Amino acid sequence: MTKTLSIRPDGTKDRAEGPLLEIRRVSKAFGGLMALMGVSLRVWPGQIKGLIGPNGAGKTTLFNLITGMLRPTSGDIRFQGRSIVGLSPFQIAALGIARTFQNVQLFRGMTVLEHVLVGGHRHSRSGLLGAILRTPRMQREEEEAQARAWAILKRVGLAEWADRPAESLPLGLQRILEIARALAVGPQLMLLDEPGAGLNPMEKARLAELIRSLNAEGMTVLLVEHDMSLVMGLADEIAVLDYGQLIAEGPPEAIRQDPRVIAAYLGEEDEVGHAARG
Amino acid sequence: MRRTAFSPNFFGFAIGIPLILVIGALEAFRPLGLSLPALTGGLLTLDTMIRVGLFTIILVGLNLLMGYAGQASLGQAAFYGMGAFFSAILTVQARLLGLPLALTAAWWWPWLVMFVGALLVGLTAYGIGRPILRLRGHYLAMATLGLGIVIYILLRENLGLSHLNLTGGFDGIQGIPRLRMGELVLWPAWRYFFLVWLFAFGAIALGLRVVHSRVGRALRAIHGSEMAAESVGVEVSHYKAMIFGLSAAMAALAGSLYAHFQTAVIPATFGFGPSLELVVMSAVGGMASIWGAPFGALAILLVQEALRTQLHRIIPNAQGEFEAIAFGLILVLIMLFLPEGLTTGGLRWLRSRPRLRPRWG
Ligand SMILES: Nc1ncnc2c1ncn2[C@@H]1O[C@H](COP(=O)(O)OP(=O)(O)OP(=O)(O)O)[C@@H](O)[C@H]1O
Ligand SMILES: [Mg+2]
Question: What's this model's pTM, rounded to 2 decimal places?
């Protein structure tokens, strides 16, 4: 069904190597509510793929399925050619998928630096015994982890905030911190869930710049965003969800003019919006 | 980790260790007839200080579990009891188990039992913790409470093997031997006091090291957001069970030390009431602090002691219930005015600079 809808653009990216992430006819039911219905989607290496849709369309649900926080009712999700359905979130992170959260998920009481250190958790091995005995390996790993974390903080421009409690940061920087924490995982694919929500124009510009430069360094991004100009400016391809179904997919210019997309968003203002909430 | 100028950890050891040495020496030599009770107006005895040390060991573990990892345990005294009874059974009931006297009479036998006991209790708790710690909030509290009660009843009912009478039922086990180091018996009390505080400072050092490590960060992250922690590759269920296991092992170790101190154990010492008391001590000292452990234990033991000896002066025919009421009132007041506990809350109040959130131990 979605096959006919999907518009394969003549992208500049090399698509010979196969998709990084492939979602195959995935459905998710919450009791009687179908949050996703037979959604198929591909994310190619090196691209920024936009995922848009009205409130309640199922975007966050799709992220939760990809990261293993929820299990699809049916369908398959493949990362680098291998099915990841049924794996735990921590295993999926280890494979190279990191995410941010629509409602910022910080570790209360921990500093900015510590957030990024936790992000790099999987790059060290020392456990409880290493910590108690302060083994040389643990100390070396700790130094390496600190160095990596500082490099990431500098990279995203949060170094001067390193020792501040994360919850004391303005929202714009909290969202950047979530990206920094995800970066520390060392992922091939980043899932960003409305990173621009609640940010002022200046913060949004900074965010867009960061995403663009990460992508330029080779990071593949799947971006959920309500701010049309932000997502249109960043993504090289956009998929549109509405009521759990993929209604359009293609380059930003095509999506902007797609009558189904316009209809979905027009409806959001009035009765459809109510229906989605109720 | 990168704290330099003023480290409360340094001061903690620099003040705490000499203090313990002085108290121990005072009691050992009694110079000029001075003693700890005499100097403190009867408020502090060596016995109380030994208990503070034992509870410190348990509370460091409990604080790691509750204050850092954010997982409640209302059954911690049961692990304390498991350690105590493990030592008691394997040193006193050896004949029932068919262990050769040559083995159980050796000076190192109780030590071996103590460490093996702590290890076994820790591993058991890890195993139980994997499923139980999936529960959150009140549900976890109820589950650990239930677990504590089950273990207490098992101790009381001879582990269900009444024909063996291993735990001695209600009456418990008497005649547990004193610990020895070769020929040296760790008694009188001041010797045991040194031993217990050696373990207590060891527990504090261990707690601090865990907190300031990758493991400690993972635990605090789980406390903050399990979802986010898992999303960066932290195996949440493993870490939760692991710290549950560690806290249980520490409680068991304290239990063994208690058994050889008291030389008699009864199940009632390890029931629900004591579990609750441990949580109160933890809260009063400051759950999210390692140094809160000795202060919480000391504060509560002192309050109990004071209530027991002084309450009848204020309310002449006060009974046990008044003790409990006064105890509860004090707890409510502390939660209202120092919700982070004596150490963390106190330090913050002293400095009253929000930027310097106490993160250390
Ligand atoms: N855990 C859940 N249990 C039950 N229903 C859920 C759950 N998560 C999401 N839903 C429902 O699934 C639908 C899709 O929600 P989802 O959060 O994925 O939408 P979204 O596209 O991210 O919306 P928004 O733009 O508002 O973030 C909604 O109707 C929502 O109420
Ligand atoms: Mg959403």
Answer: 0.91
